[in-house]
Design a protein that fits this description.
alpha/beta
């Protein structure tokens, strides 16, 4: 070989090595920077009597809105209206019996069941998300969100350490949680907190059951702050040692009782009302429940003066199909409407409570309300369909005679 030819080969090798080195350095730098960005977000912390997000003190001002009680075409409208009130968070349950209606058949993408799309839409509307995946959710929903096929097991014991029940829960969580895990705040998403079970203290006191549910959530990818919520009757028995406790109530007296117990357990925890009941649900045959406005204002003011709040419901929506729940002693079924006398009506229109809520937040905690809130959106037009003449019907007893 000639000397110039050898030099050209060496030069070519140097160029290739330099190019490869540059690419490798760029890849390393890129992914190192990405990891720094991804891990730089500090999830919600409960300490020193306050909540902290990214290390900064925050007040959770949340409203309950269940995606499965509203057509997805209206989600954006409702979320905009919630944000326009001054709230910074939206809370939702997750109904197991809709996402796994029959055993092993999962549905997370169709219409109202597209939970991932709902959470992402909440983030686009500048809202954090509180996720309450159950598995039991109550919510005046059929079997509290538990799928009816669980009862095919004659020995089934729901909300317990009965192993077939825990196995079914774990299998469900293995599908649900990975679907939303990357939407947690520390990973760039809006989910800042996740609830374990729901008002378990009003049902039982088996801490092994509660720990099993919590461990299943963790196993499948939940890393954000976890908490429990209970009313004044269950606050002493529904907790998990070391896990943040929150309260559910609709009046100042019960609020004082619940807050008092939480302070006894851990005076370092911030006070959080996970369910401030803005109204109430209706059974067939009852008059529509309406909460006294002065009582509503008094209780909401009491809550936000001391801590954080999730207004349950902020928008109630509709119990579509036969998913409305019921209570016993005596048996009373919930109606199709879940209006709840909430700040937003079933049709999404702001009520007097909506404007009272906004005024209270602006008066008591203006420092936690954004100066860049969206405008209240125009109401979605509605119309009357007139009278509907029923020409045929089938009784429940006859319906049950059909084989599935």
């Amino acid at each position: 070989m000639t000397l110039p030819y050898i030099r050209r080969i060496r030069l070519w090798r140097i160029v290739v090595c330099f190019a490869l080195g540059t690419v490798i350095c760029w890849i390393c730098a890129h992914f190192s920077l990405r990891n720094i960005i991804m891990t730089d977000k500090k999830g919600l912390q409960a300490k020193n009597k306050f909540f902290y997000l990214d290390g900064k003190e925050m007040r959770i001002l949340s409203g309950a809105f269940h995606y499965f009680r509203c057509l997805p075409e209206y989600w954006s409208h409702r979320l905009t209206t919630i944000r326009a009130c001054g709230l910074n968070t939206v809370e939702t349950y997750v109904p197991w019996n809709l996402h796994e209606e029959t055993k092993g058949n999962y549905q997370f993408t169709k219409d109202m069941l597209n939970i991932r799309q709902f959470i992402q839409m909440a983030q686009k509307h500048d809202l954090y998300v509180i996720l309450r995946p159950g598995p039991y959710i109550c919510s005046e929903w059929d079997l509290g969100g538990l799928p009816s096929w669980l009862l095919n097991d004659p020995s089934m014991k729901v909300r317990s350490t009965y192993q077939p029940y825990l196995d079914a829960v774990d299998q469900y969580f293995s599908k649900l949680i990975p679907l939303v895990a990357d939407l947690q705040y520390s990973k760039g998403g809006p989910i800042i907190a996740v609830q374990v079970e729901n008002e378990y203290g009003s049902y039982g006191s088996d801490r092994k059951h509660m720990k099993a549910i919590m461990e299943s959530l963790k196993k499948h990818g939940i890393t954000e702050l976890m908490f429990t919520s209970d009313n004044e009757q269950g606050i002493k028995t529904g907790a998990i040692p070391g896990v943040l406790m929150t309260g559910n109530f609709d009046n100042v007296q019960h609020g004082k009782e619940i807050y008092g117990h939480i302070k006894e357990v851990n005076s370092d925890w911030p006070l959080m009302t996970m369910e401030f009941w803005s109204g109430w649900f209706d059974h067939w045959g009852e008059k529509h429940h309406q909460t006294d406005i002065p009582k509503f204002e008094q209780t909401l003011s009491f809550i936000v003066e001391l801590g954080s709040v999730n207004i349950y419901m902020f928008f109630g929506g509709t119990n579509f199909g036969f998913m409305n729940g019921a209570n016993d002693n005596p048996y009373t079924a919930t109606i199709t409407s879940y209006d709840y006398d909430a700040p937003l009506s079933e049709s999404g229109h702001p009520t007097d409570k909506y404007y009272r809520t906004k005024a209270i937040l602006q008066r008591i905690v203006p420092q936690y309300i954004s100066n860049n809130l969206p405008k209240l959106p125009d109401p979605i037009p509605s119309k009357s369909y007139g009278q509907v003449q029923m020409e045929a019907y089938i009784t429940l007893e006859d319906m049950l005679s059909f084989e599935v």
